[in-house]
Amino acid sequence: MTTTGIITPAELRAEVEQFYAAHFHLLDEGRAEEWALTFTDDGVFHPPGGREPVRGRAALAGGVGAGYRRLLEADEVHRHWHGMIEITPRAADGAVLVRCYALILATPSGGPTRTHLSCVCEDVLVRVEGRLLVRERRVHRDDQRGT
Amino acid sequence: MTTTGIITPAELRAEVEQFYAAHFHLLDEGRAEEWALTFTDDGVFHPPGGREPVRGRAALAGGVGAGYRRLLEADEVHRHWHGMIEITPRAADGAVLVRCYALILATPSGGPTRTHLSCVCEDVLVRVEGRLLVRERRVHRDDQRGT
Amino acid sequence: MTTTGIITPAELRAEVEQFYAAHFHLLDEGRAEEWALTFTDDGVFHPPGGREPVRGRAALAGGVGAGYRRLLEADEVHRHWHGMIEITPRAADGAVLVRCYALILATPSGGPTRTHLSCVCEDVLVRVEGRLLVRERRVHRDDQRGT
């Protein structure tokens, strides 16, 4: 941020990219509680396929923790990549809208790596005490269109 | 851009990345006319394999629109990812030269996602009324080398 | 860098991303000597699987050159993508610590493209005469965990 307090597009993009990197490193390492802290208190995840939204950090951490234990049992690593990140600051409330592609790579022990899922992710990021957090995430799977 | 009118490497990179994100979101959603407007009037696409160049927005939109209709018929989604983006401003005319990797992911309804094509993309971007546009694009497919 | 000599997170990220783009373009084109010059004189690569570290530019170039000749014989192209780049400047010595994901795409002549390897890469970048160079790289393959 400049001394005038106005954040430039380059500064915001750097911040969003650093945020996603840290956020998905936590997720993919199974650090579910720390990952949930990158959402707001009342953060909501709208999963693909019209499933019930997951609300709040405890529920978010619980879901991700259970998913990670299943990966451990399957002896598989997942890596979440965000790319083609389009960033739109919303003047009305200072939120940062993101539309991007998400690719999940899956690698079983012994390989090979496969492209597990291709998705579109829509995030509403908000700034809380200076840090970006996810207030709302909506994910659409490319293999389940119209859902 | 700073108040002095000099664009920094960080500002230019943020602009290029935002441009590509919006550009490929349009392409992958089949918004062919809007996508073609991200080229200059006389924009040229040199397809891989030595095929004839596609010149001008009408031809660009026509080709992409036809491609999108084939994907709809095949019930498949394509996602274009640009990555490893090397940016070289050209002092002589202010153009922005880009060399990057391009990955196309393809997902049929019901899955799974596959890595459809890996390419190298060379773009000449120019600024028209303050906005970046593609003046020239050259794509090389990794599965068709020497072409 | 600003006139005060303080590099901002946005400037550093742009520099790191440009560095990786150029670095992997050299690698994937088999320009082994030039690629080795993007390491420090005493640069070290710790390969996955607990294999012996590769030390110094001559050894780095030798290993990469041999690998590239094997790809030519196999008539295959590799593309290295870095993504989800988390950047941590280290105040003590000015080094730049990077943790990121690495994806290697492999495309034989005639296709199709496959996801050859998914890795985590940890780099220590240092600034030498104004330019970033790799002083140390540690790569972990997702298909070989615990190594």
Mind explaining what this structure looks like?
- Three copies of one chain form a homotrimer.
- Chain A has 147 residues and is an alpha+beta fold.
- Chain A has one domain (9-139): Nuclear Transport Factor 2, Chain: A (Roll), CATH 3.10.450.50.
- Chain A is 29% helix and 43% strand.
- Chain A has three helices and six strands; from the N terminus they run ααββαββββ.
- Chain A has a six-stranded mixed sheet with strand order 2-1-6-5-4-3, covered by helices on one side.
- Chain A is globular and about 50 Å long.
- Chain A starts with 8 loop residues before the first helix and ends in a 6-residue tail after the last strand.
- The model of chain A has no long low-confidence stretch (mean pLDDT 95).
- Chain B binds chain C through residues 8-10, 13-14, 83-87, 99-101, 103, 114-118, 142-145, and chain C through 8, 10-11, 13-15, 17-18, 20-22, 24-25, 77, 79-83, 105, 107-115.
